[in-house]
UniProtKB/TrEMBL annotation:
Upper taxonomic lineage: Eukaryota, Metazoa, Ecdysozoa, Arthropoda, Chelicerata
GO molecular function: nucleic acid binding; RNA-directed DNA polymerase activity
Domain of life: Eukaryota
Gene name as annotated: POL
Enzyme class: transferase
Domain (Integrase zinc-binding): residue spans on this chain: 88-144
Protein name, UniProt field: RNA-directed DNA polymerase
EC number, as in UniProt: 2.7.7.49
Length: 214
């Protein structure tokens, strides 16, 4: 992912290359001071920053401040290594959600979207927001349902070329009784010629249906 030139080095070091595409969107077109100020003014993050500055580490043990006062969160990855996650204030979360989302590497569904963001970024309830974001994205929904096993597999249907070799038969009724006592119709469709026929019947007993057909 390209970063804007005015994005300061200490933020840049925490930002990933989400894709190898050269035309991916930049994260946020701001400088370090603006980003730190947004963290400090955040209703969610400001209390954490204050606790860290006052040495109340027990209540914010996973968080720390860099020399530039940038708030980060420490988290163990699957290998047990400690990762430094950039804590995103409310102002820039939509940019993170959209970042790397377009293009050939985007639209991967909820699980992969969570994985990509969680490797480098964090904010309270971020997983929930990712899920809501993906739910509104049609390509993501299609990607996320690619392995849906509930649908029957597609199969080739043989071409019916011989007349009367395959018939679609159905019974319709009961209908108002005719003067001759019939109140059902046996409908027949030849699948080769598409020729339709309808035979009146008094009932739909097996013998009556066979007699109507032959």
């Amino acid at each position: 992912m390209k970063l804007e030139e005015n994005l300061a080095e200490d933020i840049k070091n925490l930002l990933p290359l989400f894709t190898e595409e050269k035309d991916t969107m930049s994260l946020i077109n701001i400088n370090t001071d603006e980003f730190i100020e947004a963290q400090q003014k955040s209703e969610e993050l400001a209390p954490l920053i204050q606790k860290i500055e006052k040495g109340m580490n027990n209540e914010a043990s996973d968080y720390s401040l860099t020399k530039g006062k940038l708030l980060i969160k420490s988290r163990k990855d699957k290998k047990g290594d400690i990762r430094q996650l950039l804590v995103i204030p409310e102002k820039f979360r939509s940019s993170i959600l959209k970042m790397g989302h377009e293009g050939t590497s985007g639209h991967l569904g909820v699980t992969k979207k969570k994985s990509r963001i969680a490797r480098y970024f964090y904010w309270p309830q971020c997983y929930k927001e990712i899920e809501e974001f993906v739910k509104t994205c049609d390509p993501c929904q299609r990607a996320g349902k690619a392995n849906d096993q509930k649908k029957a597999p597609m199969q080739l249907v043989p071409v019916i070329s011989e007349v009367s070799s395959k018939l679609n038969v159905d019974a319709v009724g009961p209908l108002p009784t005719t003067p001759t006592g019939n109140k059902y119709l046996l409908t027949v469709m030849c699948m080769a010629s598409k020729y339709p026929d309808a035979v009146p019947m008094p009932d739909i007993a097996s013998f009556t249906v066979v007699e109507a057909l032959f």
